[in-house]
Amino acid sequence: MGSLSINDHQQLIQRINHANKYYPSPHLQVQLQVCQLRTLINEPLAIHPLVVFTHPDASLNFEYNPDLITLQALSLRMNELMEEYSNCESTTNIKQLAFDLKSKHSRKHENLYNHYQLSKNQLISGVFCIWCSEKKTLMTRTHGTWQCPSCGRLDKLAHIEALKDYGYLINRLINNEEARSFLRVNSRFTVSRLLNDLKLEKIGEGKGTKYDLTKLL
Ligand SMILES: [Zn+2]
Questions:
Q1: What is the mean pLDDT of the chain?
Q2: Are 141 and 179 in contact (CB under 8 A)?
Q3: 39, 35, 11: which is closest to 25 by C-alpha?
Q4: If you measure from the C-alpha of residue 161 to the centroid of ligand 1, how many angstroms do you get, rounded to a whole number?
Q5: Is the CATH number 1.10.10 carried by domain 112-216?
Q6: 195: part of which helix (H) or strand (E)?
Q7: pTM above 0.85, yes or no
Q8: Please, which residues bridge with residue 23 across strands?
Q9: Distance between CA atoms of 60 and 53, rounded to whole angstroms?
Q10: CATH 1.10.10 in the chain, residues?
Q11: Residues 117, 120, 122, 126: what is their CA dihedral angle, to the nearest 10 degrees?
């Protein structure tokens, strides 16, 4: 968003509230990705790099370039490119390629908590009600289920989303004590049952047992 321009050194400058932020050129970035994609697919294929600025409040203030466009211009540009490359690849080849690329995909597991240098007190723990998500209401554990004090809904599996957050943000391994603290449940037995019911892989035994949340992520 904001006013976007590109300087002679190919840096992208974002101007918001009278302050400039600098980013590497998206055009150079996408050209680098073309090279990386070529190495990956190892085929003489036409690859056309295109940069699309999707934020509706982005104002593009650089010389017109048909490959640095707004979202509104994308479908027209796609039609032009389809025409331009109409003789290149058959749909079957493209489908096979898409399938090959998909099979090579692996998820990136990154510790976001460390990446953004968050501290524990910045994170609100607990099981949030998905129906009241904008109000950020925490559900409470009552009679073997989770209940939202705001909308009154019951959800037996509401803790799964919280455990996913824990897996993504903090650690893929969690023990009973950590789960009690994160889910805001006092009972060791309740948490033990919740974790065991998810049939997660377990590491260790007894009080030191760690549950692997990978299956949920
Ligand atoms: Zn609710």
A1: 89
A2: no
A3: 11
A4: 14
A5: yes
A6: helix 188-197
A7: no
A8: 12
A9: 9
A10: 112-216
A11: 130
